[in-house]
């Protein structure tokens, strides 16, 4: 989840004269993915992420060449609220941790 490292790696590939890259796979972190998706788009590359959940990445205006297989966080919130309503729950306690996904 280190933005400078990911960006450097992507730039090296983009400016490689023998480039055969047709797409970018990853990153695992939304913060890195937002940056690489912007650069990949400018370079005509598609990007697919398997774990980035940032709602910003859903914007096809900002990231037209970005696709993901993980549901954005905001979609889960809608489902949670619907579950609470269906169960008739009026009070819910949320347990959370303040840690980036896939970090140590």
Record keyword descriptors for this entry.
104 residues; alpha/beta; elongated; transmembrane; G-protein coupled receptor; glycoprotein; transducer
Overview of the molecule:
- This protein has helices at residues 3-14, 30-42, 73-87, and strands spanning 23-25, 46-49, 66-68.
- By secondary structure, it is α/β, with parallel strands linked by helices.
- The protein has one domain: 3-Layer(aba) Sandwich (Rossmann fold).
- Strand 1 (23-25), helix 2 (30-42) and strand 2 form a beta-alpha-beta unit.
- Helix 1 (3-14) runs parallel beside helix 2 (30-42).
- The longest helix has 15 residues, at 73-87.
TL;DR of this structure?
With 104 residues, the chain is an alpha/beta fold. Helix content is 38%, strand content 10%. It is a multi-pass membrane protein.
Would you spell out the secondary-structure blueprint of this structure?
Blueprint: H1 3-14, E1 23-25, H2 30-42, E2 46-49, E3 66-68, H3 73-87
Parallel strand pairs: 1-2, 2-3
Helix pairs in contact: 1-2
| CATH fold call | Rossmann fold
- Helical residues, percent: 25-40%
Give the strand order of the largest sheet, numbering strands 1, 2, ... along the chain.
Answer: 1-2-3
What series of H and E elements makes up the topology? HEHEEH
Low-confidence stretches: none
C-alpha Rg (nearest Å): 17 Å
Main location: membrane
Domain Receptor ligand binding region: 6-100
GO molecular function: G protein-coupled GABA receptor activity
Keywords: G-protein coupled receptor, Glycoprotein, Membrane, Receptor, Transducer, Transmembrane, Transmembrane helix
